[in-house]
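Record type: monomer structure entry
Structure origin: computed from sequence
Chain ID: A
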Amino acid sequence: MNPFRRLATITLVTNLIYIFWLFFTKSNPLFMFLESGIILLNVIFIFNSRKRKYVLSGGPHSMRPIVDIFITIKNEDAKLFEKTVKSAVGIFYPNKRIYVLDDGGREDVKKIADKYACTYLSRDDKEAKSYKAANLNYGLKHAFGNFILTLDADMQANPNILDELLGFFNDNDKLGFVSTRQGFDVDVNDFNHENLFYEYMQAGKNSYGVGISCGSGVIYRRSALDKIGGFQEWNIVEDLYTSYVLNSNGYSSIYVSQSFTHGDAPTDLAAIYKQRGLWAQDTLRLLIYKNPLFRKGLTFSKRLQYFEIGYSYIVSGLFFPMIYLMNIYSLVANDPIIILGKEWYLLLRIPSFFISLQMFSNFSKGTSSMKMWAGLFPVYFKAFIKALLYKKPVYKVTPKGLKPRRSILLVLPQLTFLIAAVGAVIFHIFTYGLTWVFAINTYWVCVMIYFMSGVVIKAFPKKKYEKNINN
């Protein structure tokens, strides 16, 4: 039995035994609902990732179709952008055309485009308010290639990207796009490497032909984009929603498990909040208003693959903090959340939680991505409230390459929870003594401390970082 199947099976069995027992304990209904919701995410992840398809190259191709390379930029650093343009020029492919799509209308960007003989396009101020997807569509109006390669301004391309990937399109007219893993020049253990997402979630989606676009380093079939009206502008995260619409219209997609682009990722906490909050808000808008579970054109398995992405933000942003608050209240009021079989709760819940934690930790290769996901609950809660308002979020470029700064104010929500929880534990001991309420809720306080430690530590950065490009 492979490591994934072994850990997944143990996780599934222990969690299902626990939740089955919980429903017969006459416990707090809200607590039961929240616990069920958290365990449901484990079940969805295991179901979606039980079959994984890893793809590493596109094979040979006999033709040399025209490929338009779109490099989008707004306010990104010109030096980083020039590296990206230079990498695009260095791609080993004779029939390519490079377009610089500048939403900032900057003269220094135009000079770089001219320097490398790229076509420079910039919309007027009124049009530029339609975000990145419209910028890409503006490029489509001026380009005529068979395929489109998209590159972010700060992501440099591998010179073999087209020769390695175009072969996928040879014998599959319904292949809408090929997505690739992104490599980041950050600390070797930094959560931005997203091993859990790339190696399990994306590979699971790949087995159903719905590997999602990651924005940069993606090759789209032009005719598929034309059929759906171009890059989708309803969401600001155009890669996810364009993937969603293409897959819903009968086009498959492939995710390649190699990195063909690399660049910087945010390590400063303020930049992380900004980037992750934007992703969460737009993904939650998709979940709330265009729910994948009811999407026509997708099978149930494909719907569940898309549902998983938004639901993970719900669990982090709502379920975890609500459980934390319940446990703080329970300690202060001495109000038990488990009515019957209190000792069985600890005997069943601690192993099931530990095994789940071990599974996610192993699959993320120790990059602390799960702790960051759970610890960013204030960001995801705020994103959920904004998503309910339906309004499309305002796009702002995420600053990258910044040295991590001390950001105590940003972690005040996490610190407030931690101080309140520890205070509640101390209050309970001195007021009520050592009780089952103390034992059960102190367990959750320990969980809280573990999950929030990743974000809190980020607020007090180290001076030196070991960098690594994840290929």
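Annotation 1: The first helix runs from residue 3 to 22.
Annotation 2: The chain has 17 helices and nine strands.
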